[in-house]
Design goal:
This protein is an alpha/beta fold. It is 28% helix and 18% strand. The chain has an eleven-stranded mixed beta sheet with strand order 1-8-2-3-7-4-6-5-9-10-11, with helices on both faces. Bound molecules: adenosine monophosphate (AMP) and magnesium ion. The site of magnesium ion (MG) has 3 residues, from loops.
Protein backbone atom coordinates (compact mmCIF):
# COMPACT_ATOMS: atom_id res chain seq x y z
CA UNK A 1 0.00 0.00 0.00
CA UNK A 2 1.21 3.53 -0.80
CA UNK A 3 0.97 5.79 2.23
CA UNK A 4 0.08 9.38 1.39
CA UNK A 5 1.90 12.02 3.47
CA UNK A 6 -0.05 15.23 4.10
CA UNK A 7 1.58 18.31 5.68
CA UNK A 8 -0.77 20.50 7.69
CA UNK A 9 0.21 23.70 9.46
CA UNK A 10 -1.01 23.31 13.01
CA UNK A 11 -2.13 26.93 13.10
CA UNK A 12 -4.08 26.73 9.84
CA UNK A 13 -5.82 23.40 10.41
CA UNK A 14 -9.43 23.35 9.29
CA UNK A 15 -11.82 20.54 8.42
CA UNK A 16 -11.69 21.61 4.71
CA UNK A 17 -7.98 20.80 4.43
CA UNK A 18 -8.69 17.42 6.00
CA UNK A 19 -11.61 16.37 3.81
CA UNK A 20 -9.73 13.57 2.06
CA UNK A 21 -8.45 12.23 5.40
CA UNK A 22 -12.00 12.32 6.74
CA UNK A 23 -13.20 10.37 3.69
CA UNK A 24 -10.54 7.70 4.22
CA UNK A 25 -11.66 7.27 7.84
CA UNK A 26 -15.36 7.07 6.93
CA UNK A 27 -14.49 4.48 4.29
CA UNK A 28 -12.82 2.21 6.86
CA UNK A 29 -9.18 3.25 6.18
CA UNK A 30 -6.41 4.29 8.58
CA UNK A 31 -4.92 7.77 9.06
CA UNK A 32 -2.10 8.68 11.48
CA UNK A 33 -2.41 12.18 12.94
CA UNK A 34 -0.73 14.45 15.48
CA UNK A 35 -2.19 15.10 18.91
CA UNK A 36 -0.80 17.14 21.81
CA UNK A 37 0.35 13.88 23.50
CA UNK A 38 1.76 11.57 20.79
CA UNK A 39 0.81 10.68 17.18
CA UNK A 40 -2.30 8.52 16.93
CA UNK A 41 -3.21 5.81 14.40
CA UNK A 42 -6.86 6.49 13.67
CA UNK A 43 -9.72 4.37 12.34
CA UNK A 44 -13.54 4.43 12.64
CA UNK A 45 -14.24 3.51 16.29
CA UNK A 46 -17.66 2.10 15.41
CA UNK A 47 -16.37 -0.25 12.70
CA UNK A 48 -15.02 -3.63 13.91
CA UNK A 49 -13.10 -4.07 10.64
CA UNK A 50 -11.25 -0.75 11.14
CA UNK A 51 -10.25 -1.86 14.65
CA UNK A 52 -8.89 -5.13 13.23
CA UNK A 53 -6.87 -3.12 10.67
CA UNK A 54 -5.38 -0.99 13.46
CA UNK A 55 -4.21 -4.09 15.36
CA UNK A 56 -2.75 -5.53 12.18
CA UNK A 57 -0.88 -2.31 11.24
CA UNK A 58 0.63 -2.03 14.73
CA UNK A 59 1.25 -5.74 15.17
CA UNK A 60 -0.56 -5.28 18.47
CA UNK A 61 -2.42 -8.01 20.38
CA UNK A 62 -6.14 -7.46 19.87
CA UNK A 63 -6.97 -7.68 23.60
CA UNK A 64 -5.32 -4.28 24.02
CA UNK A 65 -8.18 -1.75 23.99
CA UNK A 66 -8.17 1.45 21.89
CA UNK A 67 -8.90 5.01 23.02
CA UNK A 68 -11.86 6.62 21.24
CA UNK A 69 -11.30 10.27 20.23
CA UNK A 70 -14.10 12.83 19.97
CA UNK A 71 -14.20 16.54 19.08
CA UNK A 72 -17.13 17.69 21.25
CA UNK A 73 -18.44 16.66 24.67
CA UNK A 74 -21.88 15.94 23.12
CA UNK A 75 -20.28 13.05 21.18
CA UNK A 76 -19.59 11.24 24.46
CA UNK A 77 -23.22 10.37 25.30
CA UNK A 78 -23.83 7.80 22.53
CA UNK A 79 -20.61 5.94 23.42
CA UNK A 80 -21.29 5.34 27.12
CA UNK A 81 -23.96 3.86 29.43
CA UNK A 82 -23.77 6.77 31.86
CA UNK A 83 -21.61 9.75 32.75
CA UNK A 84 -20.85 9.44 36.48
CA UNK A 85 -20.99 12.70 38.48
CA UNK A 86 -17.25 12.50 39.30
CA UNK A 87 -16.46 12.77 35.58
CA UNK A 88 -18.08 16.19 35.22
CA UNK A 89 -15.44 18.39 36.89
CA UNK A 90 -12.68 16.40 35.15
CA UNK A 91 -14.30 16.96 31.74
CA UNK A 92 -14.92 20.67 32.43
CA UNK A 93 -11.32 21.21 33.45
CA UNK A 94 -9.31 19.00 31.05
CA UNK A 95 -11.29 18.50 27.84
CA UNK A 96 -10.09 19.20 25.29
CA UNK A 97 -6.73 18.01 26.61
CA UNK A 98 -4.41 15.11 27.50
CA UNK A 99 -6.91 13.17 29.66
CA UNK A 100 -8.65 9.86 28.84
CA UNK A 101 -11.64 8.70 30.91
CA UNK A 102 -12.90 5.12 31.24
CA UNK A 103 -16.70 4.65 31.16
CA UNK A 104 -19.10 1.70 30.94
CA UNK A 105 -19.58 1.30 27.19
CA UNK A 106 -22.82 1.52 25.23
CA UNK A 107 -23.93 -0.99 22.60
CA UNK A 108 -22.69 1.39 19.86
CA UNK A 109 -19.04 0.59 20.60
CA UNK A 110 -17.92 -2.76 19.16
CA UNK A 111 -16.00 -5.28 21.29
CA UNK A 112 -13.14 -5.11 18.76
CA UNK A 113 -12.53 -1.47 19.75
CA UNK A 114 -12.44 -2.19 23.48
CA UNK A 115 -10.51 -5.45 23.33
CA UNK A 116 -13.60 -7.28 24.61
CA UNK A 117 -13.97 -5.09 27.73
CA UNK A 118 -17.38 -3.72 28.81
CA UNK A 119 -15.75 -0.32 29.31
CA UNK A 120 -14.60 2.27 26.77
CA UNK A 121 -11.75 4.81 26.96
CA UNK A 122 -12.64 8.27 25.58
CA UNK A 123 -10.55 11.38 25.01
CA UNK A 124 -11.09 14.80 23.42
CA UNK A 125 -7.72 16.02 22.10
CA UNK A 126 -6.84 19.73 22.03
CA UNK A 127 -4.44 19.59 19.06
CA UNK A 128 -6.06 21.66 16.26
CA UNK A 129 -5.22 19.07 13.57
CA UNK A 130 -6.70 16.21 15.63
CA UNK A 131 -9.84 18.22 16.40
CA UNK A 132 -10.28 19.27 12.75
CA UNK A 133 -9.74 15.69 11.54
CA UNK A 134 -12.37 14.24 13.89
CA UNK A 135 -14.82 16.97 12.76
CA UNK A 136 -14.03 16.33 9.09
CA UNK A 137 -14.65 12.61 9.50
CA UNK A 138 -17.93 13.05 11.37
CA UNK A 139 -17.29 9.86 13.40
CA UNK A 140 -15.54 8.93 16.67
CA UNK A 141 -11.95 7.89 15.93
CA UNK A 142 -10.28 4.93 17.67
CA UNK A 143 -6.58 5.67 17.91
CA UNK A 144 -3.71 4.00 19.73
CA UNK A 145 -0.24 5.49 19.45
CA UNK A 146 1.00 5.25 15.84
CA UNK A 147 4.04 3.05 16.57
CA UNK A 148 4.67 -0.62 15.93
CA UNK A 149 3.67 -2.56 19.04
CA UNK A 150 6.33 -2.42 21.75
CA UNK A 151 8.29 0.49 20.23
CA UNK A 152 8.50 3.98 21.74
CA UNK A 153 5.47 6.13 20.92
CA UNK A 154 5.97 8.58 18.01
CA UNK A 155 6.30 12.27 18.87
CA UNK A 156 7.04 13.45 15.31
CA UNK A 157 5.81 12.48 11.82
CA UNK A 158 9.29 11.10 11.08
CA UNK A 159 8.81 8.48 13.82
CA UNK A 160 5.42 7.52 12.35
CA UNK A 161 6.89 7.18 8.85
CA UNK A 162 9.63 4.91 10.27
CA UNK A 163 7.05 2.52 11.72
CA UNK A 164 3.96 2.88 9.48
CA UNK A 165 5.02 3.77 5.93
CA UNK A 166 3.38 1.28 3.55
CA UNK A 167 1.07 -0.09 6.27
CA UNK A 168 -1.65 2.61 6.39
CA UNK A 169 -3.48 4.96 4.00
CA UNK A 170 -2.27 8.36 5.18
CA UNK A 171 0.09 10.09 7.61
CA UNK A 172 -0.66 13.71 8.54
CA UNK A 173 2.48 15.63 9.47
CA UNK A 174 1.59 18.39 11.92
CA UNK A 175 4.99 18.87 13.55
CA UNK A 176 6.27 17.80 16.95
CA UNK A 177 3.97 16.78 19.80
CA UNK A 178 4.16 19.28 22.65
CA UNK A 179 3.57 16.95 25.60
CA UNK A 180 5.29 13.86 24.24
CA UNK A 181 3.77 11.35 26.70
CA UNK A 182 0.48 9.52 26.21
CA UNK A 183 -2.66 10.80 27.93
CA UNK A 184 -3.41 10.39 31.62
CA UNK A 185 -5.99 7.58 31.93
CA UNK A 186 -8.57 7.84 34.73
CA UNK A 187 -11.20 5.20 35.47
CA UNK A 188 -14.44 6.88 36.57
CA UNK A 189 -16.55 3.71 36.89
CA UNK A 190 -15.71 3.04 40.58
CA UNK A 191 -16.27 4.84 43.87
CA UNK A 192 -13.54 7.41 43.23
CA UNK A 193 -11.33 8.36 40.26
CA UNK A 194 -8.54 5.82 39.74
CA UNK A 195 -5.36 6.68 37.87
CA UNK A 196 -4.55 3.81 35.48
CA UNK A 197 -1.84 5.51 33.43
CA UNK A 198 0.03 8.64 34.58
CA UNK A 199 0.60 11.50 32.14
CA UNK A 200 0.92 15.26 31.92
CA UNK A 201 -2.16 15.65 34.16
CA UNK A 202 -0.94 14.34 37.49
CA UNK A 203 -2.50 12.53 40.47
CA UNK A 204 -1.81 15.71 42.45
CA UNK A 205 -3.95 17.66 39.89
CA UNK A 206 -6.74 15.06 40.11
CA UNK A 207 -6.80 15.12 43.91
CA UNK A 208 -6.79 18.92 44.04
CA UNK A 209 -9.79 19.02 41.68
CA UNK A 210 -11.93 16.13 42.98
CA UNK A 211 -10.76 15.65 46.56
CA UNK A 212 -10.22 11.95 45.75
CA UNK A 213 -8.13 9.75 43.52
CA UNK A 214 -6.21 6.52 43.97
CA UNK A 215 -3.39 5.07 41.91
CA UNK A 216 -3.55 1.62 40.31
CA UNK A 217 -0.59 -0.23 41.96
CA UNK A 218 0.50 -1.41 38.49
CA UNK A 219 1.56 2.18 37.68
CA UNK A 220 4.84 1.80 39.58
CA UNK A 221 5.31 -1.97 39.89
CA UNK A 222 5.66 -4.72 37.30
CA UNK A 223 2.42 -6.53 36.49
CA UNK A 224 2.25 -10.08 37.79
CA UNK A 225 -0.22 -12.43 39.39
CA UNK A 226 -2.15 -10.55 42.00
CA UNK A 227 -1.07 -7.22 40.52
CA UNK A 228 -2.82 -7.25 37.19
CA UNK A 229 -2.81 -3.86 35.50
CA UNK A 230 -6.35 -2.52 35.00
CA UNK A 231 -5.27 -0.72 31.84
CA UNK A 232 -4.44 -3.82 29.81
CA UNK A 233 -1.83 -2.10 27.61
CA UNK A 234 0.25 -1.66 30.71
CA UNK A 235 1.02 -5.38 30.92
CA UNK A 236 3.31 -5.62 27.90
CA UNK A 237 6.98 -4.61 27.70
CA UNK A 238 6.45 -1.28 26.11
CA UNK A 239 8.07 1.83 24.72
CA UNK A 240 11.20 -0.26 24.37
CA UNK A 241 14.35 0.52 22.40
CA UNK A 242 16.12 -2.44 20.76
CA UNK A 243 19.06 -2.50 23.19
CA UNK A 244 18.61 -3.44 26.85
CA UNK A 245 18.01 -0.40 29.05
CA UNK A 246 18.83 0.02 32.74
CA UNK A 247 17.71 2.88 34.97
CA UNK A 248 20.37 4.18 37.36
CA UNK A 249 18.73 5.49 40.50
CA UNK A 250 20.49 7.66 43.06
CA UNK A 251 21.77 11.16 43.83
CA UNK A 252 22.74 12.80 40.50
CA UNK A 253 26.45 12.95 41.30
CA UNK A 254 26.71 9.32 42.41
CA UNK A 255 24.47 8.17 39.55
CA UNK A 256 26.64 9.97 36.98
CA UNK A 257 29.75 8.33 38.43
CA UNK A 258 28.15 4.88 38.23
CA UNK A 259 26.96 5.51 34.66
CA UNK A 260 30.50 6.52 33.65
CA UNK A 261 31.87 3.34 35.24
CA UNK A 262 29.28 1.15 33.46
CA UNK A 263 29.98 2.87 30.12
CA UNK A 264 33.73 2.38 30.34
CA UNK A 265 33.16 -1.26 31.33
CA UNK A 266 31.00 -1.66 28.22
CA UNK A 267 33.65 0.00 26.06
CA UNK A 268 36.31 -2.37 27.37
CA UNK A 269 34.08 -5.28 26.27
CA UNK A 270 33.82 -3.64 22.83
CA UNK A 271 30.19 -2.61 23.36
CA UNK A 272 28.67 0.75 22.52
CA UNK A 273 26.84 2.26 25.48
CA UNK A 274 24.40 5.16 25.31
CA UNK A 275 23.15 7.44 28.07
CA UNK A 276 19.77 9.17 28.47
CA UNK A 277 19.87 11.98 31.03
CA UNK A 278 19.18 15.64 31.77
CA UNK A 279 21.45 18.32 30.34
CA UNK A 280 22.59 19.03 33.88
CA UNK A 281 23.80 15.45 34.30
CA UNK A 282 25.16 15.23 30.74
CA UNK A 283 27.89 17.71 31.76
CA UNK A 284 29.28 14.96 34.04
CA UNK A 285 28.92 12.06 31.59
CA UNK A 286 31.97 10.86 29.66
CA UNK A 287 30.19 8.49 27.29
CA UNK A 288 30.27 9.73 23.65
CA UNK A 289 26.63 8.77 22.96
CA UNK A 290 24.23 10.88 25.04
CA UNK A 291 20.59 11.89 24.45
CA UNK A 292 19.73 14.90 26.58
CA UNK A 293 16.29 15.26 28.12
CA UNK A 294 16.16 19.04 28.42
CA UNK A 295 18.46 21.34 30.30
CA UNK A 296 17.36 21.10 33.91
CA UNK A 297 16.55 18.11 36.12
CA UNK A 298 12.78 18.58 35.78
CA UNK A 299 10.57 15.79 34.44
CA UNK A 300 8.52 18.47 32.61
CA UNK A 301 11.42 19.18 30.29
CA UNK A 302 12.27 15.45 30.01
CA UNK A 303 8.76 14.34 28.98
CA UNK A 304 8.60 15.71 25.40
CA UNK A 305 12.06 14.32 24.58
CA UNK A 306 11.92 10.89 26.17
CA UNK A 307 10.56 8.79 23.28
CA UNK A 308 12.78 10.54 20.71
CA UNK A 309 15.77 9.78 22.98
CA UNK A 310 14.87 6.06 23.06
CA UNK A 311 14.57 6.00 19.27
CA UNK A 312 17.89 7.83 18.92
CA UNK A 313 19.60 5.00 20.81
CA UNK A 314 18.28 2.56 18.17
CA UNK A 315 19.38 4.83 15.31
CA UNK A 316 22.90 5.14 16.74
CA UNK A 317 23.16 1.39 17.26
CA UNK A 318 23.64 1.38 21.02
CA UNK A 319 24.29 -2.09 22.53
CA UNK A 320 23.40 -1.01 26.06
CA UNK A 321 21.54 2.02 27.42
CA UNK A 322 21.67 3.69 30.84
CA UNK A 323 19.05 6.23 31.88
CA UNK A 324 18.88 8.64 34.76
CA UNK A 325 15.97 8.25 37.21
CA UNK A 326 13.53 11.07 38.03
CA UNK A 327 11.47 11.46 41.20
CA UNK A 328 8.00 9.90 41.12
CA UNK A 329 6.33 13.26 41.76
CA UNK A 330 4.15 15.33 39.42
CA UNK A 331 4.97 14.54 35.77
CA UNK A 332 7.93 12.50 37.11
CA UNK A 333 5.50 9.64 37.86
CA UNK A 334 4.62 9.45 34.14
CA UNK A 335 8.23 9.76 32.94
CA UNK A 336 9.34 7.00 35.34
CA UNK A 337 6.35 4.80 34.44
CA UNK A 338 7.42 4.86 30.74
CA UNK A 339 11.10 4.45 31.56
CA UNK A 340 10.48 1.49 33.87
CA UNK A 341 8.45 -0.27 31.21
CA UNK A 342 11.04 0.49 28.54
CA UNK A 343 13.67 -0.95 30.89
CA UNK A 344 11.55 -4.00 31.75
CA UNK A 345 11.99 -2.87 35.40
CA UNK A 346 15.76 -3.25 35.24
CA UNK A 347 16.89 -0.77 37.92
CA UNK A 348 20.38 -0.22 39.35
CA UNK A 349 20.31 1.49 42.76
CA UNK A 350 23.32 3.63 43.64
CA UNK A 351 24.05 4.52 47.22
CA UNK A 352 26.31 7.50 47.81
CA UNK A 353 29.18 6.65 50.19
CA UNK A 354 28.58 7.81 53.77
CA UNK A 355 30.27 10.99 55.01
P1 LIG B 1 -2.31 3.82 23.41
O1 LIG B 1 -3.47 3.93 22.54
O2 LIG B 1 -1.14 3.15 22.77
O3 LIG B 1 -1.98 5.13 24.08
O4 LIG B 1 -2.80 2.86 24.55
C1 LIG B 1 -4.15 2.77 24.85
C2 LIG B 1 -4.24 2.25 26.23
O5 LIG B 1 -5.41 2.76 26.86
C3 LIG B 1 -4.43 0.76 26.32
O6 LIG B 1 -3.23 0.09 26.16
C4 LIG B 1 -4.99 0.62 27.72
O7 LIG B 1 -3.92 0.66 28.65
C5 LIG B 1 -5.82 1.88 27.87
N1 LIG B 1 -7.25 1.62 27.72
C6 LIG B 1 -7.98 1.74 26.61
N2 LIG B 1 -9.24 1.36 26.83
C7 LIG B 1 -9.33 0.99 28.12
C8 LIG B 1 -10.37 0.49 28.95
N3 LIG B 1 -11.60 0.31 28.51
N4 LIG B 1 -10.06 0.20 30.23
C9 LIG B 1 -8.82 0.40 30.70
N5 LIG B 1 -7.80 0.86 29.97
C10 LIG B 1 -8.04 1.15 28.69
MG1 LIG C 1 0.89 2.98 22.74
Amino acid sequence: MVTKILHIDKYKADPGALEEAGRILRGGGLVAFPTETVYGLGGNALDPEAARKIYAAKGRPSDNPLIVHISQVSELTPLVKEIPAMAEPLIRKWWPGPMTLIFKKSGAVPDETTGGLDTVAVRMPSHPVAAALIKASGIPIAAPSANLSGRPSPTSARHVIEDMDGRIDMIIDGGECEIGLESTIIDVTGAEPELLRPGFITIEDIRALTGGGKIDPAVTAPGGDGLRPRAPGMKYRHYAPKAPLAIVEGEPEAAAEEINRLCSEAASRGQKAGVICSGAMAARIKCPLVAELGEDESPESAAPRLFAALRKMDEEGADLIYAQAYRDKGVGLAVMNRLRKAAGYNIIKVHSPLG
